[in-house]
Amino acid sequence: PSVTRREDYLVPDWMVPETSLDFALDPAATTVEATLSVERNGEHDRPLRLDGDGLTPELVRVDGEDWSNWCMDGPTLVIELPGASHTVETRVTICPERNTQLMGLYSSGGILCTQCEAEGFRRITFFPDRPDVLSRYKVRMTADKARYPILLANGDPVASGDAGDGRHWAEWGDPFPKPSYLFALVAGDLAANRATFTTQSGRDVQLAIWVREKDLPRTDHALHALKTAMAWDEATYGREYDLDVFNIVAVDDFNFGAMENKGLNIFNSRYILADPDTATDYDYDGIAGVVAHEYFHNWSGNRITCRDWFQLSLKEGFTVFRDQSFSADQGSHAVKRIEDVRALRAAQFPEDAGPLAHPVRPDAYQEISNFYTATIYNKGAELIRMMATMLGPQRFRAATDLYFDRFDGTAATCEDFVTCMEEAGGIDLIQFRRWYSQAGTPRVTATLTHEAGGGRAVLSLRQTVPPTPGQPVKEPMVLPLRIKLFGSDTGAELGDEHLVLLSGESEEIIFEGISERPVLSINRGFSAPVIVETNRTPADLAFLSARDDDPFARYEAMQQLMLDTLVASVTHGRAEHDNVVEAVRNTLGDETLDSAFIAEAVLLPSESFIGDQMPLVDPEAIHRAREALRRDLGRSLEREWRAAYEQAKANRFEYSPAAKGARRLKTVALGYITASGAPDAASLAFVQFEQADNMTDRQGALTTLAGGTSDERVAALDIFYNRYSDNSLVLDKWFSTQALSARDDTPEQVEQLARHPDFKLSNPNRARSLIGAFSVNQRAFHDASGRGYRFVADQLIALDKINPQTAAKLLPPLGRWKRVDAKRAEMMRAELERILAVPGLSKDMFEQASKSLE
Ligand code: HT7
Ligand code: ZN
């Protein structure tokens, strides 16, 4: 396999200041004529090399003349050029309707659209398809007017007209130089939800969200989110939008969540379409977050782009940090932080601990699309957050101003960003840079001792960074740990919060004047993305879960208490539940807390997260221990759960933080009532299912029923299916709810669902809703028979032939064989070997499967 290495970076041999593209659009055969002005970059005599993928040149001209001095080097068009600057023309023909990989120009439900990041542009035309070649684009499109009445591209519209023969044309021009991965065009029968946004400097921007006519009523939330995000970026980062129009198009077939193409974002329809009947609160929040994320890329990604793909986290980590901050500002900061940390622990920590671990700035890749990972995105965002914490809000803003100012219009590096943080922040980040180069989640051991007589408390901190593939030995990191002490008798704060920068392997911090026994609150707000082990007792954790003034730390104390109990139970067969029951009782009864926070705090850690705490995962024992604690909590607090349920039940649908919190707590309470074994639980859930005026309540009830064996379960699944059979986004929920079910027969059910007429691998959302959901269902996936592994491998082998990128992204759970017993590990390895033996396997899958076997 060919490997691309960061250390091999060389500046481009040729620049392309201007690009003109002419598309004769047709789903079966689209011709693309490209005219590039090219300029030799520096003193050299190397030819112009234009990347292509599956393209055949039909014409090559230089400076207006037919040119014969070219050849193909594999997929690359190599043209010998005599001078320093030339005009190069090429023509190719491509077939969008046969493009099942969904990279380049493809057709989704009759809409022609593009996806070019990371290396899709080379499937459209010959070009130096690398992010440091910035070009000014002009685009002309001709298409059948009836099938494709709307023609969109990047930038602002220039002109349009009739082309005769039932065809029409449009021209678009983007004044901002951009890399090829930000190119986009769309042609389709689309309708727009429009608005005007007036920027802080008084310019009017025409906003439009384009969807099929029937979906228009479900676009208001996305449009509102867009306007809110535009205003937020002005107020928070001083960033204003720069074109006259901003278009968003939603399509059903999309490999990712969305794409930030300059002035023409293209979205997976699941991150645009919402109404109360079909979208959950989680979906609503996801839409606002992704709309904001793509919009924020206009500065962090488009105006300043990446020099090479090793710098991907420069735009993605920073933009995730920006979208997380935006979403936090729209509701509860505490709840948003809890959600983000939960996502980090569910996706990134396992990645960092497994065979696919890589640094936030990787050193090498075979297939770049495999590196759109939780490490690049979520851990990358944590790096930005740590720098923001160390700098404080004013200096962080000065540092981002410097970055935007200094690197506007360029292709930059992670190093450039950190240098701005250092310069404007007035701090030294030499050692901090290890966060970009070292993979693995640091582990901190914190031991607090108290000398009652002397009034001294000593906090001993020790860090280790685990070995990861290719990095056996690690240097210590800089860990910004927010720390506070509380008195265990009085509950008083023993001094202010400290920001400790742990930079050595170990350090001791002395607290003087501590007369009562202190309790340690550490990594408050999850100030560093690390695993912390402490010598806190269950009573200390229960105390913090009730008294800590940092809501995240309060949540964390409860989670730790639950985890310790569950791990003890898995290890010893049983454990005392009283501490957890009392802590949950306390939280449920605390009237100062809002429902959304309570719902997060009382939720047990997932089976996978419990497994992550153990040397080897025993999926059955973990399931049993968790179910036993759930049942105990359900029974011991049944009165409290019913009270919480009743209180939240009466509310009519409204999309507000308070109403969302009430809905969340209601379904969490319903889950515990069901776990208690109460005889009326299934009918309670069924009533919620039937009477719901929104999808959050309906899906919450369906999920509760789907995990059980009641008659209501079958009825609810049928009703749900029939009610939403024409809505593919809701049908995805029908598939994923069953794939996530805790029932014993889930592996079998999932195999059946894969034969359902509505299951199709060619739609990434549908593939993910079954295969992706099933493979995170720890107990079902690791079924002792091995059928879960076989099922996933079978599906991925089939999917690889259609859409290798989506297949490869679903492979990692099969690679975690070192985490289970020898018998399961052998079966998982056998499936990986079987995948690798498939003739014609994509390089996407080859990279993931071969690394997973190491
Ligand atoms: N920057 C976008 C990444 C993306 C992507 C990557 C690989 C294959 C398909 C893709 N579609 C979009 C999305 C983002 O982070 O905003
Ligand atoms: Zn992004």
TrEMBL record:
It catalyses: Release of an N-terminal amino acid, Xaa-|-Yaa- from a peptide, amide or arylamide. Xaa is preferably Ala, but may be most amino acids including Pro (slow action). When a terminal hydrophobic residue is followed by a prolyl residue, the two may be released as an intact Xaa-Pro dipeptide. Its EC number is 3.4.11.2. It comes from the Bacteria. It holds the Pfam family DUF3458_C. It is an enzyme of class 3 (hydrolase). Belongs to the peptidase M1 family. This is Aminopeptidase N. It comes from Stakelama marina. The lineage of its organism: Bacteria, Pseudomonadati, Pseudomonadota, Alphaproteobacteria, Sphingomonadales.
